[in-house]
Specification:
Elements: H1 2-21, H2 29-40, H3 47-56, H4 63-69, H5 76-83
Bound molecules: zinc ion (2 copies).
Length: about 110
Amino acid sequence: MTESIADAVEAELVQLSKLLTEPGPRECLRCYLIRMLNEFGCNNTHRWTRQWRDSRAPRARSLIERLQRRGACCCDCEVIFNVFTDYPETSHPLPCAGVSRAGSTQPCDLRSRR
Ligand SMILES: [Zn+2]
Ligand SMILES: [Zn+2]
């Protein structure tokens, strides 16, 4: 009995953490990274970039190599600092304006929201 409760709790936690770290259906890579870095921080890898890629743009195989060439050599925050440099100054993450098409690795146009 206790075992099945533990299993159920664990399954729930897995489900919950999946929900929390799942990119939104039209959330762009940049807004997703900002949201994840804000909530969970950076672990000095491209884990969030990889997670977004796997969920939203599985065919963008060279995405991380491309970002590395543009200055994000080692981790997710460098993607924000060195690649997506036009993010508006704000104290809290802005809601994503949505990618133009599914699978696009381009950031959304946040100015269109204002
Ligand atoms: Zn980092
Ligand atoms: Zn966005």
